[in-house]
Amino acid sequence: MKLTTEKESNYTGLEHMSVQELLVNINNEDQTVALAVQRSISQIEALTTVIVDRMKKGGRLFYIGAGTSGRLGILDASECPPTFGVPFDWVIGLIAGGDTAIRKAVEFAEDDTEQGWKDLLEYSINEKDVLVGIAASGTTPYVIGALRSAKNAGLATGCIVCNVGSPVAAEVDYAVEIVVGPEFVTGSTRMKAGTAQKMVLNMITTATMIQLGRVKGNKMVDMQLSNNKLVARGVRMIVEETGATDEVAADLLNKYGSVRAAIANYK
Prior knowledge:
This protein is an alpha/beta fold. Helix content is 49%, strand content 10%. It contains twelve helices and five strands. A five-stranded parallel beta sheet has the order 2-1-3-4-5, with helices on both faces. The radius of gyration is 21 Å and the shape is globular.
């Protein structure tokens, strides 16, 4: 299998470029990423649709990956509770090597085909849930093994990869293949591939949470009020929705603890 993620960069002699040349050329490459994602909208739709269906029935969304891919899954999962006010265990991200690997690479952790499923079993994963493997190359053993076991256990499975026809994609029901082409630094998939994966993750969870009723109009009415900036945003939302004064909106927010509840109880 030829990996487009390993193809030679379109640029050479990087060490001889000025800072401006480096930044301009990196940006030129980055501008191709959104178009690559656009070409896979139908694949993203299919995966998101099954996630919405499973979560409406009480299932959870799990991400699993290694390295940059694993960290991106954890990032997306960790942002769902504060953004949409959902329980922390609705969307869960796992990385090869465990939490230590979030900050520091754990050698050879991604090469273990058995550990991914073992890690998932700690969460009592079951056939109601959806497992999405994230792997830029589409060849990560940790992800492949987890997906294979999950599919055998009756879970819906998907993936986000940056090559076509990868071993990871072969294991899943719903493959999302975003072909971004060669990286600016050859093989450095933290760049365009990572950007593409982050875009797709944003799309999946945002669309899912909207479908689950966690957004009103275009507002995060269920967001966690965890700092002064968010409290102020919540007050503005209530004012815009109800026409109440800032003082009344602030009192409502303080009393009911959420934008949604404050709006619902405004008289």
